[in-house]
Amino acid sequence: MQKIPIRQLSQTQQLHPIAEKFKIRRIEDIIGEKDLVHHLHRHDFFFILSLKNGQGNHEVDFVPYKVQDHSIFFLRPGQVHQLFLKVGSTGYLLEFNYKFYNPKGTAANQRLRKASNKNFCEFDAGRFDKLQTALESMFQEYTAREEGFQEIIQSNLDIFCIEYTRQSPNPDGPAQAPAANTYVQERFEDFIELLDKHLTKFKQVSEYVDLMNLSPYQLNEITKSSVGKTASEVINEHIILEAKRYLLATPNQVKEIAEVLGYGDVSYFIRFFKKHTGLSPDVFRHNLSIT
Length: 291
Hints:
Elements: E1 6-7, E2 22-26, H1 27-31, E3 36-43, E4 46-53, E5 56-60, E6 63-67, E7 71-75, E8 80-85, E9 90-96, H2 106-116, E10 120-122, H3 125-144, H4 149-166, H5 182-198, H6 205-212, H7 216-227, H8 231-249, H9 254-260, H10 266-277, H11 281-289
Parallel strand pairs: 1-3
Antiparallel strand pairs: 2-9, 3-8, 4-7, 4-9, 5-6, 5-8, 7-10
Helix pairs in contact: 2-4, 3-4, 5-7, 8-11
């Protein structure tokens, strides 16, 4: 059973242990004189790609995006993506994990959740410059490594998340209804985090309401207010997305994928996948592989 390739932050720079939990680099330094090509993989850390100038393509969980100037990609741990950047692209690539930035305050944690749920945003030049200023400060602090630099970087991450969510009117990601209050948003994001952790084991609404100390009616109201879908629909969408990740990022047989997703009956898994996509797993894999 082959797993989806998982990239981790470098643990080889022993002189600078921060490299195990935070890293920021200039895009032009990474690319050099050759186009940058990253094949399908996932990370165990947050990934922010900020492009002042850029050309190429970026596919995040099988949603294709055209790389453009003044655009930012923000990925959560576990998402699958592949990236192509042409020579001449400029900006910053920032990577960090919860060991470096895991805000304990409710408001700051909520901002990180909101920001990382918006995988792609485009900005006008003025708005982009505000975000770029925070990244430039982080890069300078990371490079100089003077006393207190980690705290300054973390403060700039706070600022970045605020500006990113504030100045992205049409982000791709869960489109929450205007009426959804803070409590509803927090509980919806709690639900998504539980799905990410327990999806292979728990697939029923009843199991998640037990974990969240809610009634099925309450959870359904939360998901409907947040994304206009029932809790069951959200669960099924997450199962299908994870199945697609394995189908396209690994050569594993459908039976193996069904097992890793918690389905002992491969026939049931195939019927479930076809019901929600219109295609069998094998046909889906073949069609996407040749496009």
